[in-house]
User: What shape does this take?
Amino acid sequence: MNNNIIILVSLITIFLGAIFRNFLLKKRKYKLNNALSANYFLETLNKLIEENKYNLLEERIRLKDVDAYETRN
Assistant: This one.
């Protein structure tokens, strides 16, 4: 009877360890996916800015309103 309890406790411990390991792997994968998504977003944003930097500069100059006293409105 004592051996059966030891075997049962061992199996439960192994089962819980496998569940915990699976949880940690999913958590690590989720963090990695978030980091990759953020990196992709920044790369795409930088690419768009680089492609349109001259148009953006012209628009900024056009929209900037400075009076005779160098006051920006």
